[in-house]
Amino acid sequence: MNARSAAQDSGRGQLRRPDGSPVRVLVVDDEATLTELLSMALRYEGWEVRSAADGLGAVKAAREFRPDAVVLDIMLPDIDGLEVLRRIHAETPDLPVLFLTAKDAVEDRIAGLTAGGDDYVPKPFSLEEVVARLRALMRRAGRGTARADAQLVVGDLTMDEDSREVHRAGESITLTATEFELLRYMMRNPRRVLSKAQILDRVWHYDFGGQSNVVELYISYLRKKIDAGRAPMIHTLRGAGYALRPAEE
Predict the structure, then answer these.
(1) pTM of the predicted model, to two decimals?
(2) Which residues contact 245 (CB under 8 A, 6 or more apart)?
(3) What architecture is domain 151-244?
(4) Beta strands at 24-28 and 69-73: parallel, antiparallel or unpaired
(5) In terms of CB atoms within 10 Å, which end of the chain has fewer, N or C?
């Protein structure tokens, strides 16, 4: 599956603009690999994404794209992120900005937030954390509203994508961030056989270079929480992948 089909798969339970269209996020960083990984993660949320590799390009993109939030690296090859923020806020004062940088010194955080940034995430970072922070920023700024169909249901298993609550037969199930993302991908694709390569691409957003056993490991974690003492829902199809099916099937 490509990025477009991934976005189509994730069209449920996501933040939307008032007109019903996907929220827009501008990603600004001069590290191409990082930008691509982050863009994939945001598109997986069903959001529309545009990227820029330098400050001047970011200012131009913000003017044309009119994003609902910006992920902004402080260290850029031309003008720095603080100047980018100043120029963007001159036109859109209330635009939420999440600073992203390798610098994690207290003075750098203070500089970014004092300049008008709304939050700060140091590198290296968790993709899930960046997504969660962006959700919170856009909601606080009134830039996105949750769709009514934020709940996924497969048999007696339910997931609220906004509150991140999971229940099976009414019993609450606590998941780690990665377990949640894996289960969410499976619940968005019920009954469908998902290969290890597809799962790596959509949940971890990059190829582990042969370490596909990480998928087996997390499937086993999910089974212990989802299927333990109950009719199994997670099925292994040897040589093909994994499928989530209602227990009654």
Answers:
(1) 0.58
(2) 154, 155, 190, 191, 233, 235
(3) Orthogonal Bundle (1.10)
(4) parallel
(5) C
- Residues 71/100, Cβ–Cβ less than 8 Å: yes
Q: Retrieve residue 3's tokens.
A: 């990025």
| Alpha-carbon distance values, 189 to 18, 199, 246 (Å) | 27, 11, 12
The residue assigned the tokens 């203070």 is: 110
pLDDT of 48: 93
The total of other beta-carbon atoms located within 10 Å of residue 238's CB is: 5
CATH number assigned to the domain with residue range 3-146, chosen from the 4 options 3.30.300.10, 3.10.129.10, 3.30.700.20, 3.40.50.2300 = 3.40.50.2300
Below-50 pLDDT ranges, the chain? 1-13, 148, 207-210
What pLDDT sits at residue 144? Answer: 65
State how far the Cα of 45 lies from the Cα of 23, in Å rounded to an integer: 10
**Nearest to 188, CA basis, from 232, 244, 147:** 244
